[in-house]
Amino acid sequence: MNQELEILSTKEMAVSGTSVPFLYFKRLAAHPGVKHGCSTRVGGVSKGCFSSMNLGFGRGDADENVLENYDRICDAMGFAKEQVVLSAQVHETVVRRAIKADCGKGIIKPRDYTSVDAQITNEPGVALTVFMADCVPVFFYDPVAKAIGTAHAGWRGTIGRIAEKTVQAMEKEFGSKPENIESYIGVSICKDCYTVGGEVAEIFMKEYPEATSQSSEQKKDGTCQLDLWQVNRIILEQAGVKPENIVIGGVCTKCHSDVLYSHRVQGNDRGSLVGFLMLADE
Fold first, then answer.
1. Average pLDDT, whole number, for the chain?
2. What is the pTM of this model?
3. Is residue 113 one of the residues assigned to a domain?
4. Is residue 209 part of a domain?
């Protein structure tokens, strides 16, 4: 295993030992009915600023490279790219139910939706996705109702409480009870690396003071350090998810930008990470 990847292992997350490495949650992996993982920059065929496991179409990378990367990462996780349903993230709070007929959308056939930052399903063999390159990916699993979800929570989605809306959608669509849902916060930017200012800082300092901090210099310029992991934990608890069922992976994209894409480090000239979550075929 690449030594740089090994350091990403935390109390909650580990790195797969497959030829194409990916990060996974130890607790979620203990459920035999679920397949999941978060990609890294390692193990693909893309070159330059996309090196090497870029999973984002439309960023300037060749489509054939991205398709090959999907083949590799999906094979490592135990499913096929034809089972994957790509989100269509625009930093809003739309939650969409995915079904078998959606498999392959965004990869081998066009998407017929344009604004989807969260997906849910209760159908085995449907691999949900969430893109990230600093924003917070949240994974949901209800072992009782046998349902899953993924959500993209940047600061806009977090303000919009997309994690709560995903829980509510699972309640409505599948009869999930919040107290049964397990929630996992994946690889994304940490508080030490995430400075915000202006109206964004004001909103979070007012609504979630326990997840923000300011140095004396930051008080002067109106900026603060923002912990999106903790804000989303608070939102999940307020949505009825039990504290013991919320797992924070603790891996920062910016701290490890050598093996993870980070928008704060690379800007738009970068690839995209993807988190995958699928109910295993019955």
1. 97
2. 0.98
3. yes
4. no
